Q: What sequence folds into this?
């Protein structure tokens, strides 16, 4: 293993092992997290990571829905969107007939 590779491995290990941050949460949130971890048979860290990822996805979808609502509110932009969708719909190359 080259010196460069060893350094890269050490950096990755440092980031994942030693870069722990402390975040204060209220007791009710900690109890809820502990309950989730027990129910899912996860560590608190893994339960928290999954909860954060779930919330991140929720925020993404809310933003996407908001963007589509704004697009629909603009009559001209929505008409352009529909034209573009129709153009893409005819490009299906799967050889299957419409269902």
A:
């Amino acid at each position: 293993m080259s010196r460069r590779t060893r350094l890269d491995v050490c950096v990755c290990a440092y980031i994942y092992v030693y870069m722990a941050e402390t975040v204060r949460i209220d007791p009710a949130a900690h109890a809820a997290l502990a309950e989730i971890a027990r129910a899912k048979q996860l560590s608190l860290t893994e339960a928290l990571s999954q909860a954060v990822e779930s919330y991140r996805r929720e925020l993404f979808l809310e933003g996407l829905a908001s963007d589509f609502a704004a697009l629909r509110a603009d009559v001209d932009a929505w008409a352009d969107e529909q034209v573009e969708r129709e153009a893409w719909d005819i490009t299906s190359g799967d050889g299957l007939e419409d269902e």
